[in-house]
Fold these 4 entries.
Entry 1:
Amino acid sequence: MPRGDVLFNFYQKEKLMKPMRFFTILFIVFAMVTGVCAQEKKWSDQAELSFVDTGGNTDVTSLSANNLLKYKFSDELHAAWKLGALYGQSDGEKKAESYFSDLRLDYLFTKHLYSFVNAGWSKNKFAGFDSRYYVGPGAGYKFLVGPKHFLLAEVSLNYVNETYIDDTDKDYLGGRAFAKYEYAFTDKNKFSQFVEYLHDFDDRNNYNMYSETALISALSDYLSLKTSYVVKYDNQPVPSTLKETDTILSITLVVNF
C-alpha cells in the first residue's frame, strides 16, 4: 500500500478515535463522581455506553453515551438530570451527531399520583434540528407499582422553541402524552416498553412519536446489558427532504451506582 494511503487511513482512524476517547473519559468521570455521591444514600446514577446500528436518516455505525443522575431531597421530592451524546462516522465522514440534556423535578402526592416540571435542550442536525428547547409542567399516575408489573402514564404542557437546519425557527405550545410498562422477571432482569407522543397545538400536522422496547439482563450487582429498539417518527420533518422515520437498534452496557 502506498505511504500516502497509509497516512490517510491512520488519520481517519484517529478522527474516529477522538470522540470514542471523549465518551470513554466522560463515562469514567461520571462513574467516579457518582460512585462517591452514592455513599450518601440520596444519590443514584445510571451510566450507559453503547454500540448503535441506526437506519433511516442516519444509516451508520456509531457510539453513544448516556447518564441519568438522580437525587432524593425527601420522600416526596425527587430530582433527575439526564444527558447524552451520539456520534458516528462512515468512510471517514461524520454521519451522525446528536446531544441532549433534560432536568426534571418530581413531587409525589401519594404512592400513585405525582406532578413534575422539566426543562431540556437537544441538538440533532441529521434529523433537522439545530436546537430544541422546552420547559413545562406535567402530572402522572402509577397504575401498577409492582412487584412484577409496573405501569404509569403522564401528560404535560411545554413551551417549545425549535431552530432548524434550514435557518427557520418556531415557537409553540406543545402537549406531551407518555406511557410506560415494565415487567420484572427478577429485581435486576426486566422488560420495558414506552411510547411518547408530542403535539403542536398551533399546527395539528406537526407531531412526533417515540417508542422504545428494551430488555435488561443483569451481569452482576452493578453491571447490566440492555438491548433496545427505538423508533422515532416525525410527521412533518424540516426540511421536508428528510425521512419521517428513524430507527435505532442498540446494545448497551449499563453501570448502576
Note: DSSP finds one helix and twelve strands in the chain.
Entry 2:
Amino acid sequence: MNGNEQLALASALTAKTNQLCIGLEDGVADIFDLVTPTTAELLHGWFGGEAKTTRRLNFHDGQRQAILNTIVAHEVLNARDLKSLYQTAAPDALLSGTRLAEVSEAKHGHPKYCLKMATGTGKTWVLQALLIWQLLNKNAVQAAGVDDTRFTRHFLIVAPGLIVYDRLLDAFCNLSYLPTVL
C-alpha cells in the first residue's frame, strides 16, 4: 500500500471538512447548518474572524484542522465507528486490499479519532477544545431533555508519562488560556 492509499481517509475527510468550512471566518460556512447550536457558537468563538482579532492567542492552522476534522467526522458525518467513517468520507478506499475486512473488525466498532500532530504543535489545546465541545454539547442536550449519544461528559485520558501527565493536569486546571467562548 503506498502512502496515498494509507492516508486516503485523512485526505478525504480533510477535503470534505475544508469544503464545509469555506467562509468559516466570516460566519457563513455550510458547517454552521450541520452542527448543533452549541457547536456553531464554539466555531464562531474559536475561528470567527472578529473573535480571533480580539485575542492574543488563537489556534494555528494545524490545530484548527484537527478540531474541525473531528467535529465533521463525529457530529456532521455521524460516524459511529471506523467503517462508517470510511463509508461516508472515503468509500473508494474500502476497495483497496484488505481494508474493508480490517475496518470491520470488532476492535474498530466504536468512535475513535487519531490526530497526528508533531511535538510542540499544541495537542493539549486541541484536546481541551474537543473536551469542551463534547461537554458543552452534552450539557445542552441534557438541559433540553434529549439523549444525544454523540456527546459525553465522561473522558478517559491516557498520558504516556509523568511529564505529559503533569502538563495535561496543569492545562486542565488552568483553562483560562484556551481561546473559547465559555
Note: The CA atoms of residues 73 and 79 lie 6 Å apart.
Entry 3:
Amino acid sequence: MKGKCALYDIESELKLSHIIPKFAFDYLKRTGGKYLRTYENPDQRVQDGPKQYLLCEKAEQEFGKRERWFSHNIFLPYLKDSKMEFDYDENFAYFMISILWRVLVDQTKYEDVKAEKRLDFLEDVKSEWKSFLADSIYPQNFNDLNILLTDRIT
C-alpha cells in the first residue's frame, strides 16, 4: 500500500506493521494456547497482534534490529533462564520508545482521544519520540522510561 511513512514522512510502499512486536505474540502462542483473544471481542480468536499500514521498509528494518536485540538480550533470557541482571545499551531506549510511539500513533487517531483536552500533551510526546527514533535527538521532556518485567504466575 502506498502512503506516507509515519516515522520518516516519506511517500513509500507501507508495510503492514505490528504495533507490539511479533515476537511477543509468537511467544504467547508457543507457551500458551494456539489462539489469542482481544478484550474488545473475547469470543473471536486472533492469531497475531494488531497491525496497520504505518511504516516504510527502512523504518521496519530499524525497529526490527532493536526488537531482535531486546528479544535475544532481555526477553528470552528473562523468561527462559530467569536472568535478572542485564547489560544493555542505546538499543534498549530505542526499543521501548519505538513501541510506545507506535501505540501513541495508533491511539491518537481516535476521535475520543483527540477530543480529550487532558491528552493534548500526547502530540508533544509523539513528536519528541519521533525525533528520537528518526533523527537520534534524545528526548528532553519525555524520557523517564521504566520497564517492569513480569512472568506468568505459577
Note: The longest strand covers residues 51-55.
Entry 4:
Amino acid sequence: MKAVLAIAILLVTFVAASAQNEQAPLLEKEISYKNWTLKDVRTGEDRELRKMIAGKKLVMVIYYAPWCGNWQYDLRFLNKFYEKYKGDGLEIIGVGHYDPVATMKSNLEQFKIAFPLVYASEARGDRLLTDHYKYRTQTGDTRKWGSPWYIFIDPAKVSAKGDTLLTKTHIINGEMIEHEGEKFIRQKLGLPATETKVVVASNDKIEVCDPAKPDTSLKKP
C-alpha cells in the first residue's frame, strides 16, 4: 500500500512539474501580423517596427511580462544571441506587457538587457485585450499569460506597403529551446551550421509564469 501511495505521489509531482515547463518548438504558422508604433522602455520615444527592422536579416520579436520566470530564464541566452549575432544582421525586440514601465526598467537593469525594449500595456487586467493575446491565440497558444511569446520576421519578405507585414511566419508559443533557436538564427543569417551541445532541462524545478508567486531563481538544472 505504501509503495502504491509513493508511486501516486511521484506521478502527481511529475505531472505538476511538467506543466510548468513552457519550452515549445519553433513552428511556421499563418498569422496576420501588423506594423506597430510603441513607446521605448528606456527613453519613452515612439519606435515604429518597420523602421526597426530596416536593414536587418532576421528580427526576433518577443512579447513578455517582466515578472515572468520563463521570460527571465530565456534572457540567459537572448542576451548572448544578441551580442553574438547583431553584427550579422540579427535584431531582437522585446515588447513588454502587464506591468508598469518602472518595473520594466528595473527588469532591464537587473538582467542587463542590451536589445531594444518597447511596451504595449501596463496592467494585468488588459490580458484579454492586447494584440499579444490576439496573435498568440491565433497560433494556438493556450497559456494564460503567454510569456514569452516569439514571432520571427524576415525583413526581405515583409510587405512593402500597408499595415500588415506578414501573413505567415515562424513563431514559438512558449520558451525557446536554446539549441533549436540558435540553429534557426544561423540558418536565416546565412551562417554555417555548428555543432551544438544539447542540454535537456529537467522538469523538477521549472519556473512558472505566476503573477502571484513569481519565481526569479532562474534555476533549470
Note: DSSP finds six helices and ten strands in the chain.
